[in-house]
């Protein structure tokens, strides 16, 4: 009789995890939770490694049970804690902690080593976004009106837009940039008069901006008429202005009083020669004429001045005007009438008629 040997029982460690991806926040902690099963009661040997693309794996920690073996790397000191089930706790997360973590659990009596991967992401929460635009109102049929969405803090931001509470997407008029930060309305219509909200999110947070109201004003019918024929009118005006030349005969007439007297072209100098102002003869001064002599006649009686009442004192009045010496003219410059000593002398004595 042939007796077959008993089948060999191959034992190993089975590692499982409830989460394949863990989201972490900078400055906080992250738990990479795993569990294992084994037929052995010995303490497991646990090893955690960080793997990144095109980078050599980095050993984070190695332990027997919860007892860490060897020295930790400087960036992990005072930040690592290993649990009995093989889980790893990271304190004070940093952006450099992000990556794929591989755990290996082995037991001396077991033949196979258990392995498992957990992806860890580390981010900074996003701040509240805000909308920027040139104005809160716009005229109908305006072209390329832009709304910009911005935020100050946060990693891996993903932008979005809401119009009237509904999610916006690209269409023929409402255009979103490749990162969806800018919303462009290619041609504004009255239906664009609505409330707009900008959203931003990342793996650990999401925020909404304050609602912004965009007001659209309707264009008048006159604008529509002018807009259709405005280009043709503009071309016509430009053509007329370009072809028009002023007439050479139309010159500005200058009054003769102010017209410059120009010499012939051959003798013309750089500056025009202006004509001297017209001079008028001055009338002789009455002071230069001899005073008329009074004619002989009956003696004149004094007359009361009409400006005084009968009760006032009488004032003598003479019809002969007394000539006073002009103010400011020396008496030596005034004409002096020659005395007539001989009436028969016609040169010095005027004739008496």
From TrEMBL:
InterPro entries: HEPACAM_domain, Ig-like_dom, Ig-like_dom_sf, Ig-like_fold, Ig_sub, Ig_V-set. Residues 266-353 are annotated as: Disordered. PROSITE patterns: IG_LIKE (PS50835). The chain crosses the membrane at residues 222-244. The keyword ATP-binding does not apply. Residues 283-301 have a biased composition (Pro residues). Keywords: Cytoplasm, Disulfide bond, Glycoprotein, Immunoglobulin domain, Membrane, Signal, Transmembrane, Transmembrane helix. It is a single-pass type I membrane protein. This is Hepatocyte cell adhesion molecule-like. It comes from Stegastes partitus (bicolor damselfish). The lineage of its organism: Eukaryota, Metazoa, Chordata, Craniata, Vertebrata.
């Amino acid at each position: 009789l042939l007796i077959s040997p008993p089948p060999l029982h191959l034992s190993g460690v089975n590692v499982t995890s409830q989460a394949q991806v863990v989201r972490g926040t900078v400055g906080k902690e992250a738990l990479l939770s795993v569990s294992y099963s084994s037929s052995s009661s010995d303490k497991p040997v646990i090893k955690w490694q960080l793997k990144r693309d095109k980078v050599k794996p980095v050993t984070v920690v190695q332990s027997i049970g919860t007892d860490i073996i060897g020295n930790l790397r400087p960036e992990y000191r005072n930040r690592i804690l290993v649990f009995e089930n093989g889980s790893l706790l990271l304190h004070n997360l940093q952006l450099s902690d992000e990556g794929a973590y591989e755990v290996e659990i082995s037991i001396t009596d077991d033949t196979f080593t258990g392995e498992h991967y957990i992806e860890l992401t580390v981010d900074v929460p996003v701040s509240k976004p805000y909308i920027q635009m040139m104005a809160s109102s716009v005229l109908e049929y305006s072209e390329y009106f832009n709304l910009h969405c911005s935020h100050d803090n946060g990693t891996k931001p993903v932008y979005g837009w809401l119009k009237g509470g509904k999610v916006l997407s690209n269409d023929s008029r409402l255009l979103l940039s490749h990162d969806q930060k800018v919303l462009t309305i290619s041609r504004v219509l009255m239906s664009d008069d609505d409330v707009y909200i900008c959203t931003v999110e990342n793996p650990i947070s999401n925020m909404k901006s304050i609602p912004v109201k965009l007001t659209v004003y309707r264009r008048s019918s006159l604008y529509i008429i002018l807009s259709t024929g405005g280009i043709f009118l503009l071309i016509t005006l430009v053509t007329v202005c370009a072809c028009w030349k002023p007439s050479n005969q139309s010159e500005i007439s200058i009054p003769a009083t102010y017209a410059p007297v120009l010499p012939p072209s051959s003798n013309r100098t750089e500056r025009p020669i202006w004509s001297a102002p017209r001079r008028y003869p001055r009338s002789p001064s009455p002071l230069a004429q001899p005073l008329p002599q009074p004619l002989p006649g009956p003696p004149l009686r004094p007359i009361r001045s009409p400006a005084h009442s009968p009760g006032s004192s009488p004032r003598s009045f003479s019809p002969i005007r007394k000539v006073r010496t002009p103010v400011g003219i020396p008496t030596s410059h005034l004409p002096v009438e020659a005395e007539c000593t001989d009436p028969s002398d016609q040169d010095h004595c005027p004739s008496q008629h």
